[in-house]
Amino acid sequence: MIPSIATVCVSGTLQEKLEAIAAAGFTAVEIFENDLIAFPGSPADVRRICADLGLTIVTCQPFRDFEGMPDARRARTFDRAERKFDLLQELGTDLLFVCSSVSPEALSGIDRLAADFAELGERAAKRGLRVGYEALAWGRHVYDYRDAWEIVRRANHPQVGIVLDSFHIMSRGLDLATIGTIPRDRIFMVQMADAPLLQMDHLSWSRHWRCLPGQGEFALPDFMKALVSTGFDSYLSLEIFNDRFRAGSARSVALDGHRSLLWLLDETARQVGKPMPGAPAMPPPAPVEAVEFIEFAVVESEKGGFERLLRALGFTRTGSHRSKDVDLWRQGDIRIILNSDEDGFAHSYQITHGSSVCAIALRVPDARAATQRAKALLDVPHAGAVGPGELDIPAVRGVGGSLVYFLDGGSALGRWSEVDFVPTGESEQAAGLIAVDHISQTMQYEEMLTWLLFYTSLFDAGKTPSQAVIDPGGVVQSQVVESGVGAAPGSGLRLVLNGSQSHRTMSARFVTDFFGSGVQHIALATKDIRATVARLAANGVAMLPIPENYYDDLEARADLDHAEIAALKALDILYDQDAHGTFRQAYTATLDGGFFFEIIQRDGYRGYGAANAGIRLTAQARLARPITVPGGLPHAQGSAT
Ligand SMILES: O=C(O)c1ccc(O)c(O)c1
Ligand SMILES: [Mg+2]
């Protein structure tokens, strides 16, 4: 199958769109009619631009309200088709793309419609052109691809075929079996789109909510399996109408588009058990085993304060890097690297974003395979400077230009902490924190689907539907990605991706203050949150204060006795439960820059405390503009405003 993309998927002028599409590695493009109409040059100019960019024009679509016109309008409709044929020839393409009529005047009757297509096919044949028919999910009479196929079949003309669009088929939940019965030479092209499952009319859903394969909730591999069974090997073209993409970066969306098709073809190949022609081979997606370490880039002047915070949280400096100003801190299975070196990636990251998380290292079954898969999916590899005898840890660029390192237990990479670090011999003073529970990354709203696809294409990962969380300054969208998560604390990777369209939410302020997207908080697991939080408080860690009303409400709705609620209240611990178990969480006050830690006790519970997110955001908003006490510990009292 040949990857292609419609110009409607990306933002910009037609010229900008085409450049972005070519830069993303596509060799085929669908010109959306509106883009051509708004273009200030001739169709021949567009043809030339595409040729210069190495792009084949698959079609210029759509042609609307063609079939079923009453006699009085029929001749005029065929005249319109002839003008569109002229245009297609000027563009140097051969496919007239007809979407099913929405005209109130259109008549029904399968044979009438087939006769219209037979005649159109005859006219197309005279010019060496073809006609493809797509059933829009909201077509007046034809809204089911099986009806479109029956019309094409009865038209019985070699120049007339069907166009399958996954959105129109999957949004209506149509049976896919008929796809497998269509001869492959009658499928003229296939359009791919995913979408979240929403309750709304098909037209609005299609025009605003489509997304790239893998970003939504349609079972697209099932669609692909049916398609593969026909032997189809022509254009597989993304057609995504999405408000975020229209506002996003054309280059980034086009690249994501290419990645999504590579992912889809790879996933399909795995499910059908044979390679897809046109799809590069890549290692299979693997589950993440654990977060191996989290690296903070910290400027020397802030290092003392951050170290005091780590100690107060129960961490111990266990290792010192052999050649760099870098330390390893540990507690339980949590490893934090503090990088204050004046050279290298962390330093430049710190200059841009301030002291913050610059990298996360993930333990996977095979780091080399993960790197190969990332490269095949067009992710951006990163190579840092490596000192003599030090490990060269493979990495790719992640959210906001940060790094994702890959480590495994099977190669020398598994011994990274011994190879690169000298033990300090300091004795541990743990506060009961045992593992990284999850990492939350805050990003521009327009980028959320990019990073969702990045993680879910790279790893064997699942995602939850996007959820709206209410911040005092607006709505924050929040979506969870999970890979390799099991019952043991710290197993696998749990990520929460947050983004907001409002400028006034905590998320938006983080992105502004941070000069980009990044890790806003890290949740650490304990087996006994009351003991841990009491210890942190005794160590001087300021926790986020939770209003009393929360605990009154908790008493009214949760299955907890009064003493337990009083204990949670005394320590500012929030509570939630689901069908699987209970959940307790508390937050440190926010550091300068908006970063904070969360402390979690998870007893079977599978969620992330979404029920409490609004309470937390409101509490944080009250304390916005945190004061940092001398020495760098976060300070929770009052507000500087
Ligand atoms: O929303 C539309 O009108 C529209 C147009 C062309 C298509 O191919 C399509 O799937 C939808
Ligand atoms: Mg379509």
Topology:
Blueprint: E1 2-6, H1 14-23, E2 28-32, H2 33-37, H3 43-52, E3 56-61, H4 71-91, E4 95-99, H5 110-126, E5 130-134, H6 145-155, E6 160-165, H7 166-171, E7 187-192, H8 202-209, H9 220-228, E8 235-238, H10 243-247, H11 250-272, E9 290-297, H12 300-312, E10 316-321, E11 326-331, E12 334-339, H13 345-353, E13 356-363, H14 367-376, E14 381-382, E15 395-397, E16 403-407, H15 416-420, E17 421-423, E18 433-444, H16 448-458, E19 461-463, E20 467-471, E21 474-483, E22 493-500, H17 506-513, E23 518-526, H18 529-538, H19 548-557, H20 562-570, E24 574-578, E25 581-587, E26 596-603, H21 610-622, E27 627-628, E28 634-635
Parallel strand pairs: 1-2, 1-8, 2-3, 4-5, 5-6, 6-7, 7-8, 9-12, 13-16, 18-22, 23-26
Antiparallel strand pairs: 9-13, 10-11, 10-17, 11-12, 14-15, 15-16, 18-23, 19-21, 20-21, 21-22, 24-25, 25-26, 27-28
Helix pairs in contact: 1-11, 3-4, 5-6, 9-11, 11-16, 19-20
Bound molecules: 3,4-dihydroxybenzoic acid and magnesium ion.
Key structural traits:
nine-stranded mixed β-sheet; alpha/beta; 641 residues; 2,3-Dihydroxybiphenyl 1,2-Dioxygenase, domain 1; TIM Barrel; binds magnesium ion; disordered C terminus; single chain; 21 helices; binds 3,4-dihydroxybenzoic acid; 35% helix
